[in-house]
Amino acid sequence: MAQSKIANGKQGASLGFEAELFKAADKLRGNMEPSDYKHVALGLIFLKYISDAFEARHAALLAEDPQAAEDKDEYLADNIFWVPREGRWSHLKANAKRSEIGTLIDDAMRAIEKDNESLKGVLPKDYARPALNKVMLGELIDLISGVALSENGEKSRDILGRVYEYFLGQFAGSEGKRGGEFYTPRSVVRVLVEMLEPYQGRVYDPCCGSGGMFVQSEKFVLEHGGRLGDIAIYGQESNYTTWRLAKMNLAVRGIDADIRWNNEGSFHKDELRDRRFDHILANPPFNISDWGGDRLREDPRWQFGVPPVGNANYAWLQHIHWHLAPFGTAGVVLANGSMSSNQSGEGEIRKAMVEADAVDCMVALPGQLFYSTQIPACLWFLARDKSNGKRGNETLRDRRGEVLFIDARNLGTLVDRTRRELSDTDIQKIADTYHRWRGETLDRHSRESGNPEGYQDIPGFCKSATLEDIRKHGHVLTPGRYVGAEAAEDDGEAFADKMQRLSAQWREQQQEAARLDAAIQANLRELGYGG
Predict the structure, then answer these.
(1) Which of 25, 87, 435, 491 could form a disulfide with 108 if both were Cys (CB 3.0 to 4.6 A apart)?
(2) Which region among 78-82, 401-405, 480-484, 485-489 has the lowest average model confidence (pLDDT)?
(3) Is residue 184 part of a domain?
(4) Are 350 and 318 in contact (CB under 8 A)?
(5) Chosen domain end from 111, 143, 175
(6) pTM for the whole thing?
């Protein structure tokens, strides 16, 4: 097994591996903008992955049947890209110190695209540009060459997949608002995935960014005993650069997906208009005002009311609900204002959605989770049919006329001055609450942790509300309105005794304050400042 120059030869079992590699790579960036350097670094990581996967399969085929080693179909059958000689990492590594290394990388990218139809137009090919420091490129190649890989292809995929995902997150943080447009924080994605549990079926994201929703969905399937391919992945993205990131991100993970790009976007050119999906996960850009809604006033997707021209939030919700299969469920990240706004008819649309039983659950998130905005966010969970909603071999309970509210604003921990993350325990708490409420049998992990089966309202955290409850609140869906205040902890002291004790303590403190005031006045008089 090759040893890594990073993390003292460890195989990256802890987060320190990715962090150390990023720190070293970022040091090479110099004065280059993160938004530019991102494509330089991620493109090379991708090239390293597909080259390593090819070389491992090539060596195995040479040992079995040398003739088969030159057959492209042998690689395609294993979901491995064909890498021509000039595109292989060994070739670039051997030439890393040459002044024309940028041209060699561009040639490698073009050669790989030529031989792999699904990568056409995806890979970055501007490494030869004069402004790009060629010494830095060579050093970056040497650094990425040091990523240790097992001879096992799955291990290779996992390590480089983790590196790619970590780099995406770090670049999103460096870029701030712009970076957050293509990247949803991992802990937020995990809440969506753990609640929707996409074990099998069709998964869709209409604004898929760099593909994080899909990566976490596939990871969920594998962690729960499923197989890569148990879910079919579909997506659309309007930003061409971001679409390329998504294609590479999924390819690094070995995930086959139908990700469409057009610059008109999902509202105006819905590439998958006639498809319906079992699970939809989405983090649309918040409060878009220029979404072109004036050209879509008669669209059949607006089943609950025509969304306002000045805000796309309710257009996204209805577009997503339109694409749900008969028992489909969706999780959508939106700005908090979507839960209570009455501007431009939004309140009427929300009322229609609630009355039609389209809303299954609402989750208020803690602040500071996102790289791109400090706007507080929430999660909407939609369901096409709440009457039984089959899940695997289980039939969920009839939830018609009910909505679950979860107030998770007090969860999460600060990871730096400006950003918060939800822990595994936080995510489990939110997801288990939802699953109990739906009438599911919780998994072994939850039972072993001592969590009882069966849902219960918890003051200050969760509440199962009826449609009548929601009507009383004017169809506002802010969880804080429903969950109430957290129950005060009972310390075992009788109220009368506590009042007597606190009153005596207060009198003592008053007397002590008076004594200190007198002493200060006396000291001032001695110094000639008092009257």
Answers:
(1) 87
(2) 485-489
(3) no
(4) no
(5) 175
(6) 0.80
